Amino acid sequence: MPVKTIAFWNLLGSILVLTCLSFLKCTPVSTPETPPLSSSFTSSIMLTAADSLLLDSIGIIIKGENPKPNLDAFIGRLKKRLPEQHPVLAEAIYKRGILDYRSSNYYKTISFYTDAVWRYEKNNSPADFNTICKLYRNISLNYYFVEGYLDSVYYYADLGLQKMNEYPDSLIDDNIRIGLYQWAGLASREMGDLAASGNFLKMGVDLCKQGRSGYKICGPTTMNYAWTLWDQNQLDSAMHYSLLAEQFFLDQIAGLNAWDSTYIADIYNNRSEILTLSKDHQAAIQAQHNSLIINQKIRPNSRFVAMNYNNIGYAYVHEQKLDSAESYLMRSMQINQALKDTFLLAQNLENLADVCLYKGRHFQALEFLDQAINFYFPNPKNLPTIAALYKYEMILPMSQRARTLYTLHQNDSQSYPLERVLKAYEQVDSLVSALQFSVRSEQSKVLAVEKLKPVYEDLIGICEMGWRTRKDTVLLAKAFRYLERSKALVLRERQQNAQLAAMINQERFQQRERQFIGDINRLNLKLQKGQLTKTESHQLLDQIQRKELSLKSYRDSLYQNAPKYKGYLSDTDIEISKKIRQSLTEKQIVLDYFVGDHAVFVGTLTAEGLGIQKLPVSPEQLADRVTQFRSAINISGTSMNLSLPERLAQDSVYRTNGLWLYKQLIEPLAIPASISRLTIIPDGILAFLPFSALLTQQQDLPEAYASYAYLVKDKVINHQFSLAIWYDNLQRTYPPNKGILAIAPTQTTGKSLSHSGKKPINFSSLRYNQEEIKPLDNNYGAKTLTGREASREMFEQLSGDYQILHFAGHAYADLENAYHSFLAFDIDHSSVVSDELFLLDQLEKLPLKANMVVLSACQTADGDLAKGEGVISLSRAATLAGAKSVVSSLWLVNQQSKVGLFQDFYAYLAQGLPKDEALQLAQLNYMQQEINNPHPYYWAGLINMGDSEPVALSKPSLWAKLFSRN
Fold this sequence. Notes:
By secondary structure, the protein is α/β, with parallel strands linked by helices.
């Protein structure tokens, strides 16, 4: 494993230099460059000539001997003579804090700084606001040192940023603002919130690009932004900003000093990490050597040199130059042993274990991994639930240890029984669960799940093998449990929190939860810093475990008065599968897929029991075939200008892949003919696959689409995110709501929209959406919104009152950033088009109580695929908002074909049929009736995700229809 350079010390130094230079001038904060203030900005306390003399006195005291006691006595006299908010008194207290900072007394520094900022704030003078912001930045910086108060680091940086929002940009010192963005970004990253970290650091970098700030703040800020992009696996962007960080330093005409050079070394180290993830190991080794040359000159025998040696060794492991790798890793170990740096020693041992594994020395690898785990964590045999993102460092060697034990088991099952292997994996699983439980932002959780999914692939593979060879039902249950634990965890947690918010005071809940998590983070950081005795380490572990149990107990206690929600946050995997099985009929089967890095598995669930099976297809083959299948559907369905040979070629691709996918994904399960209903829980690339269009037999008649043997002709098909979310839906009931709310925005001409700084999005005119919703009004008394009424404001206002929402219009799925996806409302009549774009995250926040949401628009089930979490789409957003089921589209839908499809769909719903069956029959009808366009492009993209139960839908009386109009 490569090691990041901890560039914090460098960053701190440059900030301190700027801070001290600024405040040792002994002048008021307002400078000649500050624009003149308006009369409303006049200071409430004017500085007199005597005040100026006092300011000079502060400077003299600081430069003289015994500055601390002299300044303390001086401050005592000022407190008797001046009002508490006088700027000279505030200035003196601030300078007193600087003196303590120089002697590394961070607690006292924070005390003086917070006292000073309180006085400046009370004075409320615009002339002081840059000083206030600078103080907030420096308080944030100091909190970084006192036992890892990351919440406080973020809190004070955020206060400074809020202060800046109160004044015109022309008055703001860019260096201070960049510093605040940087500390907010660093704190967010260390707390696991990579999304927030990236946002803050990006704002700082954007200011740097304007050229008004010094390289000493811009270089480190840009480098830290590159680190965050690296953490998010955005490698091209990370490399771009790594190069930009270096450029900020190299552009200095005056040249670089030794301190600046250490930053360059850190930037080379950062670049090496990016190249390693990009699998350009030769370039990564060269970047590490460049860093090493600088570090050996400026900071020899330091942890930075040890990091270089470690990272070069790691890169040589991947180059299969194992002797060179071992040599560099041993050099790193020598330095780390002298420094007693246990964290870096653990990294060395982990990498040496990789060398041993490549050389076939499994026993020695196991010994190295055990030592590494001991360095990461003092007592691995009694692992508490550790809720911290950085514990991912320990998961890797523990996972490798489990894999090594599995290899030894295959060679010697008596000495290394399967139970020992499973126990090793279960330790990893407990840490994975803890990590997913505590990481803060959704994006960070998704990244964590993605990194950890290989652990579940190993677990499922071992259990599947044990079930297949030993028919051990315990292993079967565990396989299913691990399969489910890898899916849609973020989505479920978000839904659970929404349910909690409905039951309790949300602000109170979040505040209490933050307090627990902050305490846990602080304790973990204290443990992470090392330099503790074994007794102290065990005491800290006990405190961490108690705090985590207290947090879990607090959450669980919230359900005591709400029995129907009880158990949401507890581990109920076995209970969930039992409940789902009890809800199934003898005609139903659940197919729960898992697409790993090396294998594809499917779990089956029926009323009779569970099953697990490894499928005869590799993930690479599967991804290639699904892509070909979808491409052939879209090309042959939409390209009317294709020649006959081209059309036939695409039809052949569709038929070949449609049959191949059926034979790999469905046929091996030998589903009895008596089972007529399939519930698909997709994973990975399968989230984009229209299962209904798979072919169950070879088709020899090109383009005879109506006669093809589609899977949907044999089976009713529904989709679910996961068993857990399905289970949650079964527990949730909504009070009776109004019937249908149908929205059809008017768009008379084609439009080109600019959004999120990307190339324009072209939308055709809407010619059929009014026709689509008209039957809902005529037949079922729907409340319809068209024209100016089909606005975002009306949708937000009314959407929570209806059991069915039907949106017929335009949508856009951003495949690079799902949160830029949107539904388009009344863009015809709006003077500001962006006001009528309803973004994905805004849709998530709606308080829906809908049994069904129909998103009859393009690509509403499409989006950014997050490994282990599914597609981040508009459909998923509606689910998060509270919809029990969502009908959506996998691709660009044809406006005209939807009219008949949805008319039939609602007619079958009115007969009391389940949603999935109503959709199946509507699709079959379309195939038979639309002789000109029975192609699967026109019907197979529509899927129902979630609950399939019937909805209460009936034709209103004439009197009711008349009454509803008034």
